[in-house]
Amino acid sequence: MTRLAAVDCGTNSIRLLIAAVDPRGRVRDVHREMRIVRLGEGVDATGKLGEEALARTRDALEDYVALMVSEGVEKVRMVATSATRDAANRAEFFAMTSELLGKVQPGVSAEAITGEEEAALSFAGAIADLDQHAGPFCVVDLGGGSTEFVVGDAEHGVKSAISTQMGCVRLTERIMRADPATATEVEIARDYVRGQLSNVIAALPMGEVRTVVGCAGTFTTLSALAQGLEAYDAASIHGSELNFSALRLITSALIEEPASGRAANPVIHPGRADVIGSGSVIVEEIMDMAEQYTHAHSFVVSEKDILDGMIAGMSNPA
Q1: Residue 145's pLDDT is what?
Q2: What's CA 280's distance to the chain center, in Å?
Q3: Between the CA of residue 26 and those of 29, 240, 312, what are the distances in Å?
Q4: Count of CA atoms in the C-beta half-sphere (13 A) of 56
Q5: Residue 318 has pLDDT above 60, yes or no
Q6: Is the pLDDT of residue 25 over 60?
Q7: Dihedral sign, CA of 317, 100, 14, 29?
Q8: Hey, what's the signal peptide range on this chain (predicted)?
Q9: What is the SS3 assignment for 299?
Q10: How far apart are CA 62 and CA 314, in angstroms?
């Protein structure tokens, strides 16, 4: 079996998937891992990736590369999203990734993909295990610096996609700075998110959507909370359904709770505790949009996302 690896480096986290692919193209997960590195910390204010953020990211990637080598990975792809697209010193980041990834596959470096490319990869991964008759789907990939929306179905793939400049870290750093955020900050954040969502409504055929799929850390954490899990359990989260009405009770409480209270919950990663309030504001506004413009009244949560889409692309390059 061929061993492949995918790395997704976003504004908030860096994630790894090592997979084994058999000659028939069947994929088996070997290892998944996520670390909060906050690569995009302060980029909004300074326009540059911070030295400490780069060091945290390097440390995580060094560990990932060591694991790839020990697992016999033959081919690796790494994508970098919102934070690196916006940074003036992104060359320093890409040189670091080239140095490290070259130990696995010479000549490989991280790729700065567009929001639209990110959305298409996320779509392919997110719907892979879902009921294909439940489409058309709108996959929502809520990140730290940006959120991608992509509409499509299993038969025809992506129909249209858009990347919006809103994410849980971006909103926290720009607007919801108090802990917990003040009522005024929350309202300003909502106005900003609604403005971003107006672009989604204008660009995508939301009226065709039957199922809204949420992927990435905010959605998976909300699923764990909704299910009352005592520890994070990917198998329980993948494919779970979050009813909008019930979910609003959870998001409302998270917005009002300080980060210390959120961090005390075992299913909320300590590195996500200070930004999931902002993520909850985004989720609430997406729910309002979905109720008004789509046929959905719940989210289906997918543990699979851009990493799985990247592995699929490497497995079937045609």
Answers
A1: 85
A2: 14
A3: 10, 24, 9
A4: 20
A5: no
A6: yes
A7: positive
A8: none
A9: strand
A10: 22
Higher pLDDT, 308 or 316: 308
Residues 6+ apart with CB under 8 A from 195: none
In whole angstroms, how far apart are CA 93 and each of 59, 111, 143? 13, 11, 19
Residue 229: how many other CB atoms lie within 10 Å: 15
Query: Residue 207 and residue 43: Cα distance in Å, rounded?
Result: 36
Residue 72 tokens read as 């016999």
**Half-sphere exposure in the Cβ direction for 145 (13 Å, CA):** 24
Q: Which residues contact 98 (CB under 8 A, 6 or more apart)?
A: 108, 109, 110
Closest CA to 290 of 207, 226, 233, 223: 207
What is the pLDDT averaged over residues 140-150? 90
The CA distance from 304 to 318, in Å, is: 21
Beta bridge partners of 111: 79
| Strand boundaries in the chain, DSSP class E | 2-9, 13-21, 27-36, 75-80, 111-112, 137-142, 147-153, 157-164, 211-215, 241-243, 298-302
What does pTM read for this prediction? 0.81
What pLDDT is stored for residue 229 in this prediction?
94
Contact yes or no for 262/273 (Cβ under 8 A): yes
